[in-house]
Structures are given as C-alpha cells and as structure tokens.
Amino acid sequence: MKDPALSRRAAILGTAVFPMIRIVQGQSRPKQVVISSANRLNGGVNCCAKAMEVIKAGGDTLDAVIAGVNIVELDPRDSSVGYGGLPNEEGVVELDASCMHGPSRRGGAVGALQGIKTPSKVAKRVMEDTDHMMLVGEGALKFAKAEGFAEENLLTEESRVQWLVWKRSLRDRQGHSNWGPGLDAPPAQQKSGSLDMRELKKLFPQASEELLAEAVQNALHPPHGTINCISLNEKGEMSAVTTTSGMAWKIPGRVGDSPILGGGLWLDQDIGGAGSTGRGEENIRSCGAHTIVENMRHGMSPKEAALDALKRVARNFDNDQKRLAQVDLNFYVLRKDGEYCSASLWGPGARFVACTSNQASHEEPAVYLLERKG
After folding, report:
1. In sequence order, what DSSP letters do the residues of 249-272 get, joined into one string?
2. Which alpha helices (DSSP H) does the chain contain, by range?
3. Mind listing the pLDDT tens digit for each residue in 253-293?
4. What's residue 178's pLDDT?
5. How far apart are CA 276 and CA 118, in angstroms?
6. Residues 262, 299, 356, CA angle at the centre, nearest 5°?
7. Among 23, 208, 241, 299, whose Cα sits 20 to 30 Å from the Cα of 187?
C-alpha cells in the first residue's frame, strides 16, 4: 500500500519540480565548445574548427587548442602571431605563449622567445618536461632546442618592410630621422614625408600598395594582436592557450600579458576559462583572466564577468574615455557549462569565433563596454 504522505509529496513535487526540469533541459548547452579570437584571414575560424576536430576524435583538450593556434602561428600572413609576426625595435621577432591544462591543473609559459615558430608547443613542453612554470629569452630558446625544436628566422620579407617603414617614421625634436633623406639630399627630397606613399613605393618596389598602407598604419599605431583559444569536451575537461608576437616595435625583452598566467590566460575547469588579446600592459594591471574566472566563481555570467574586468581597466584611467581611446582590449570567456562570450573595451565591431558540437566554426559579435562615436 502506498504511503499517502509520500503520494502527497510526489504530487506537490510533480507540479513544482517537473516544469523546472523542462526549463533546464530547454536551456541545455553544447557539451563540446571551442572559442577563440577572430584573427585575420579566417585564422580564428580555422583554429576553432581544427580544435573541435581533435576533440571529436577523442583528443586531449590542450592538444586540441594548441593544434588550432598552430595554424595561425605558422601562417606568415598573420603578423601578430608566430612566424611573420612584427618584430621588436631592433627587427627581431620575439614570441610569447602560455597554456593551461584543466584536468591536471597545470600550466606552462614562454616569454621573449626567438627563433621558434610555435611558442605554444614550447609552453606545453615547459609544463610537461620541467619543474617550472615559465622560461624566457635565451633560456627559453636553449630549452626549446634541447627539446628538438628547430631554430629558424621568423622575420618574413613583409614584416621586414613594415619594420623599415616604422624606422622611417621616427623623428627627433627637429623632425630629423636617420632613416630618411639626409641633410645633403636635394630640398625636394627633404620635404617629402617620411611615410609618403610615393617615396615608399620607390624604396620598396616589390611591395604591394596594400602592404605599404598597412605598414604606414602600423608605424603610426603599433598593433598588438594575439590569438587565444579555450576548449571544453563532453567530459567537462577544459584547456586554454594564448600565443602572440606581442606589441610591434617593442623594446627587446618586453613581455605582455599573453604568457602571464592570471593575466592573459587563466583556467579552472571547475569554473571555466578566460583569455585576452590587445594591450597587455593594461590587462596585467587588472589580472583580467583570473578576475573573470573568479567573478564566475561568485555567480557572474561570462558576460557579466568580462564586462566587470573591463570596468576595472577603465577605472585605472579614471574612466577618461579620451585616454582609454588608445587602449584596445578583448576578453574571451568559456564557462564549464558551455556558456561563452567575448567582451571588448570598445565597440561595436569586435568579433570572436565559436564552434560547438552542433554548429560549425563561425564568427559572432562581442559585447562591449564603451561605444566609439563617429
């Protein structure tokens, strides 16, 4: 005979719990998710597609994201990452990368690494084959070579041209540059602008107008690219990686946020992961990636967590939008339940890439904190 009290309890729970279950099921999220920054030439789209391919084949989540970003690191057309990245002020390409493996709760990083095309792989070796978290500079290169990586020249002809154009943009207080027409040059040449397109075309006849236009833009506004990628598989395992050639024309040895665990990358697969692209100095000052994950730990959604981190950056500038106008910063966030977002300091226009178990790799618009006018 059934317990009447139990029957009454079941009846009450039936009206209260079952609708809740239907709501949760209706909002269920994909179990396999990869997100990344939207790099040029479909770099982010290709990255996420490759990472998802590895995950669906049963591969490790860290192997997946590193396989994804390797596509961009090895593509000389992307001048913000790996081979072909824009160099430091001395014309030398220096690369940074970090990675975190959720299942083992380990991480590794390299900074100011020269001569190795895939710093993300070296960061993984630091995690796996050393008792350290980060190697930098000459020590990182020696370690990479000992691990079997080939040392190569990372400066492409396109990046070399851009570096030389930047050198011509430099001026002292009298407007003089050692990389332009000399004092003994005809007056007409001296008056020509250091970044005059006609003069640049004469200097670099093999360079396309598109490349020279990009070089002028990058000389006047040094870019800081990067690619971040975060993954989640059906077992709830997560991993993440960030890799970059850093700020163009930087002082040799400068390291931004990309290899800084807690700055340009942080992951706790009990909660989720976050990464960044953009001006690393401002992200380091707010420990952006770690802040976002901790925000989610305390109940914020990925969107709320990322926007809060951006508000901290704005606060460091006293919320002065004129000063903030020079800052470019983007966050990428993936929570353990599959919810994701990207948030940019400025918008609209910022985009990122997502790929799920039931949707092909594609771009989506990012949310943003501040709106550019005009």
Report:
1. TPPTT---STTSBTTTEEEETTTE
2. 4-26, 43-56, 61-73, 119-129, 137-146, 157-169, 187-191, 197-203, 209-220, 280-284, 288-297, 302-315, 321-324
3. 999 999 999 999 999 999 999 999 999 999 999 999 999 99
4. 65
5. 19
6. 75
7. 208
Selection from 280, 243, 273, 254 nearest residue 341 by Cα? 273
Q: 């990358």: which residue's tokens? A: 265
Farthest-apart Cα atoms in the chain, separation = 110
* Dihedral sign computed on CA atoms, order 153, 158, 164, 170: negative
Lookup result for tokens 């290899």: 259
Supply the DSSP symbol for 287. Answer: T
Q: Based on the number of CB atoms within 10 Å of its own CB, is 165 exposed (0-12), middle (13-18) or buried (19 or more)?
A: buried
Distance, CA of 313 to CA of 283 (rounded, Å): 7
Amino acid of residue 246: G
> What's the CA gap between 367 and 351, in Å, rounded?
9
CA-based nearest residue to 360, from 25, 34, 55, 28: 34
Q: What is the pLDDT at residue 181?
A: 62
- Contacting residues for 200 by C-beta, under 8 A, at least 6 apart: 165, 168, 207, 212, 215, 216
Tokens 């400068």 belong to: 254
pLDDT the model gives residue 4:
46
How high is the pLDDT of residue 12?
Answer: 37
pTM higher than the cut 0.85: yes
pLDDT interval class at 195 (50, 70, 90): confident
Q: Could you tell me the two tokens for 235?
A: 């077992």
**Residues annotated catalytic, as ranges:** 226
